[in-house]
Amino acid sequence: MSNPNTFASLGLAEPLLRAVTDTGYEHPTPIQAQAIPQVMQGGDLLAAAQTGTGKTAGFTLPILHRLLQDPAQGRKPGQPRVLILTPTRELTAQVEESVRTYGKHTSIRSMVMFGGVNINPQISALRKPLDILVATPGRLLDHAQQKTVDLSAVEILVLDEADRMLDMGFIRDIRRILALLPKQRQNLLFSATFSDEIRELSKGVLSNPIEISVARRNTASELVKQTMVLTEQAHKRDLLSHIIRESGWHQVLVFTRTKHGANRLAEKLVKDGLAAAAIHGNKSQAARTRALAGFKDGKVAVLVATDIAARGIDIDQLPHVVNFELPNVPEDYVHRIGRTGRAGSEGSAMSLVDRSEIKLLSAIEKLIKRPIERTTIEGWSPDMIKAEPAHARDDDDDRPRRSSQPRRHGGAAGHGNGARSGARPASRPRSESSSPRAGGNGSGRTGQPAAKQTRSHNGSGSGSGNHSSAAPRRAALLGK
Ligand code: AMP
Questions:
Q1: Which of 75, 141, 224, 290 is 20 to 30 A from 270 in CA distance terms?
Q2: What is the mean pLDDT of residues 441-459?
Q3: 125's torsion region: left (phi>0), alpha (psi -120 to 50) or beta?
Q4: Are 130 and 110 in contact, with CB atoms under 8 Å apart?
Q5: Are 323 and 290 in contact (CB under 8 A)?
Q6: Rounded distance, CA 261 to CA 259, Å?
Q7: Which residues pair with 321 in a beta bridge?
Q8: What angle do CA 478, 281, 122 make, to 5 degrees?
Q9: What is the pLDDT of residues 180-220, one digit of tens each?
Q10: Structure confidence by residue, pLDDT tens digits, 92-141
Q11: CA of residue 106 to ligand 1 center, whole Å
């Protein structure tokens, strides 16, 4: 296969090329270069690719192209031609936004559908003509049962982040949905990993797919500068506030382990004069959407999120990610820092680590096969914090506990604004030791991840063995 280096050479319809030009993309990413021609030709696809590789445009653009080439006549409302299933409401919304972005010069209509919100507006929307439906499995089945959606005319099915859908326990829902689709259709399956379960699912769904494997990002990502600061839990809030203000960061995603912790941190940052907001599972969908939109357009400088809430957040070239606490599961660290340094720009990922987290740190360093650089913050000292009443430590994780982290109580969380007083020297994070960029997994990412492509029969080929490092997540992450 040729290796097309421009979107035009891929043969996409003119209104789509115009939309791509509007976004400013210059070249297709490796997954786009390979997936787009395959999907345009109507073939099935099994792709190992994570968020950040450009996979969404990789399937959205050729799907739009196919719909434009073959306009359907006389279709009933509520009968989508394309069904895109994703695991979370955030991802659903973002994929549909991509559909609208790339389809903006066409009259193709799309709709987003997810649970946790009133079903009636969705029912009303389904009374209008519809081409592309982007949905989470549970709510889609609700509609199918109520016969408010008709899946009998689906021509193309996309399973996006299929591994996460399986981890979240959606396999039965997916099978029930598959039973409602016409047998004759095109199928695309995207997954970060090719586990046995994914292989099995793909065998049942795909027919003679081509298999594309994009090197997993971040395991050796040279684009993310990873640092850590050793500190006390009780000092973290003030320290972070100090770092953000002094470094002038204008767009930073901060991960906390708990919902309550996310709220308290956001409140503290707001009190210190920063435009901060928290998103987590306890917030209404409207509040989450608002916070995310504010973060995207620059009104919110600091978004504080739990892992679950942050899933699927897709923001272009996010410059900074902070781990306010290290995640309990090392793979989540890789997911978190995957929010930065994408699409050719360098990003920074900083972790605030206290003594109780050293074990987690070692597990992460083992997983990413390199030490994380220790830094100190110039101009910062805990003495700058005014004493404040102790707060109990938060313990309301978004997800079920997966390991028995010790609970600590009564850490005096310096909440005051003492850090603001007095002359403050500039305090950009400064490197203590320049630890060598040792190890890595040799995938040598240069700007874009390398992709390899093989043809497999019913997805049974061994394909991309380099994705096995992501341990299977536990079920029930959805809290549904
Ligand atoms: P995805 O992997 O689909 O989540 O996309 C990751 C990010 O890359 C998105 O923010 C896209 O806007 C961006 N992107 C997608 N395709 C390209 C491209 N060809 N060139 C530059 N950025 C891109």
A1: 224
A2: 35
A3: alpha
A4: yes
A5: no
A6: 5
A7: 253, 349
A8: 75
A9: 999 999 999 999 878 888 999 999 999 999 999 875 544 43
A10: 999 999 999 999 999 999 999 999 999 999 999 999 999 999 999 999 99
A11: 20
pLDDT given for residue 309 in this prediction: 77
Q: Which DSSP letter does residue 421 get? A: S
Q: Which sequence spans correspond to the domains of the chain?
A: 8-213, 220-392
Q: Which amino acid is at 432?
A: E
- The SS3 call for residue 58 is helix
CB 177 within 8 A of CB 153: no
CA of 342 to the centre of ligand 1 (A): 8
Which of 10, 56, 188 best tests ligand 1's pocket when mutated (most atoms within 8 Å of CB)?
56
- Return the residue whose CA atom lies nearest to atom 6 of ligand 1: 52
Query: Is there an atom of ligand 1 within 6 Å of 28 CB?
Result: yes
Architecture (CATH level 2) of domain 220-392: 3-Layer(aba) Sandwich (3.40)
Q: Is the CB of 314 under 6 A from ligand 1?
A: yes
Amino acid at 262: A
Mutate to test the pocket of ligand 1, among 92, 316, 340 (most ligand atoms within 8 A of CB): 316
57 in contact with ligand 1, CB cutoff 6 A: yes
Indicate if 220-392 has the same CATH topology as 8-213: yes
Per the confidence metrics, is the pTM higher than 0.85? no
> Looking at 43-154, which runs of residues are DSSP E strands?
45-48, 82-85, 110-113, 132-135
Pairing of strands 429-431, 373-377: antiparallel
Task: Return phi, psi of residue 414, to 5°.
Answer: -60, 115
Report the CATH fold assignment for 8-213.
Rossmann fold (3.40.50)
The response to whether residue 56 sits with its C-beta less than 6 Å from ligand 1 reads yes
